[in-house]
Specification:
It contains 15 helices and 7 strands. The strands form 2 sheets. A 5-stranded mixed sheet has the order 3-2-1-4-5. It has a two-stranded antiparallel sheet with strand order 6-7. β6 and β7 form a beta hairpin. It is globular, with a radius of gyration of 25 Å.
């Protein structure tokens, strides 16, 4: 007889609950949150099991290990589980029971999980995404320390042949010079880590059909386009551009109560952090007058500030990316300086239909 199991995975222990086809709890308890704990659970419940585990760090590994033991396992979207089954009393045991019941009723809000091979490229890009801001932060620190003593020298200038000589001839005290030298050494180390990644990823980017389209968006280079493409995956997963924007956590917050709707709340940021970062990176180029979203960016900077302006342009970038990938057409702005979303020209008739 099939058992329906819900697993609330945590860092040290996991709560689990098994239900019969009729809905009665047949067994429940806690198990260590490691491979031995999963093995004990399989031995206790057998292999005729349908299960779900709530999404968190390690959930995909749990799914893969249990599937290798013969279980049917899905990973549930934690936010949608909470929406389906809000509870006043929330404990790990209760969560496991809720997951088991959703599994039994075939109501699991399952997440799309790419294969191991498909997850490898995004992980390599996230590794680079982790390192590049560290380098930028170190470079900014070098410049900031210099301005404290009347020097306006960039990290690149100080890394030149006579950079340290310029520093030594300045009036900057030794302690601050030492801080700059440490930051420059960190930049050197990060360059040594980032360069091999760039060499690996650049050929992959140039051979990718979606990247060839995305690089036509102003401000998007090969590796940023590859990051966008890898995080988006199959564009057919998103029935509309709004869904893609929501997946990136870039949709403006909305609160409704009765006939009242309040918009303009902070972004949800509940989605792909890397996709959100890539879209905002592309939006940085809206400061340039040649950028098709420059007017939108400038107007919003005056009204709401730079952060809101960048978020708005990032949504335009994602919207354009959705149309381009859906239609397999390059970027073409609808107007040279307008605030409307630039999309491929031929998509206008499609959208109007």
């Amino acid at each position: 007889m099939t058992e329906y199991v819900g697993i609330d995975w945590a860092y040290r222990k996991a709560a689990w609950c098994a239900k019969s086809a009729g809905g009665a709890i047949s067994a429940e308890g806690f198990t260590p949150a490691d491979e031995d704990g999963l093995a004990k659970l399989v031995v206790q419940l057998g292999t005729d099991v349908k299960a779900c585990v709530e999404m968190m760090s390690g959930a995909v590994w749990v799914r893969d290990r249990l599937r290798s033991a013969g279980w049917q396992v899905e990973v549930a979207d934690a936010r949608r589980v909470k929406a389906v089954a809000p509870l006043a009393c929330k404990t790990d045991r209760v969560d496991a029971r809720v997951l088991a019941e959703l599994c039994r009723r075939d109501l699991v809000p399952a997440l799309w999980i790419p294969s191991l091979e498909e997850r490898e490229l995004p992980e390599r890009l996230r590794r680079r995404t982790h390192l590049v801001p560290l380098r930028t932060s170190a470079a900014n620190r070098v410049y900031g320390l210099g301005t404290q003593w009347g020097l306006r020298l960039s990290a690149d200038r100080l890394r030149g042949k006579d950079g340290l000589e310029l520093l030594a001839r300045s009036d900057m005290p030794t302690v601050w010079q030492r801080s700059i030298e440490e930051a420059l050494a960190l930049i050197e180390l990060l360059d040594q880590r980032i360069a091999p990644l760039d060499q690996e990823l650049t050929p992959i980017a140039r051979a990718n059909r979606d990247v060839a389209l995305l690089v036509t968006i102003p401000g998007v280079g090969d590796l940023l386009a590859l990051t966008l493409a890898a995080e988006i995956g199959d564009i057919s997963r998103f029935p509309s551009a709004r869904k893609l924007v929501g997946y990136a956590g870039m949709a403006p917050g909305v609160r409704q109560s009765g006939d009242r709707t309040k918009t303009g709340l902070p972004l949800s940021k509940a989605g792909s952090r890397t996709l959100r970062w890539a879209a905002v990176e592309a939006a940085q180029h809206a400061r340039r007058e040649s950028n098709p979203w420059h007017q939108l960016y400038t107007d919003l900077c005056k009204r709401s500030g730079k952060n809101d302006a960048k978020s708005a342009v990032a949504r335009k970038v994602l919207t354009a990316a959705w149309h381009m990938l859906s239609l397999q057409q390059p970027f073409k702005p609808s107007s040279p300086r307008g605030g409307t979303s630039p999309v491929p020209a031929s998509s206008i008739s499609v959208l109007a239909a």
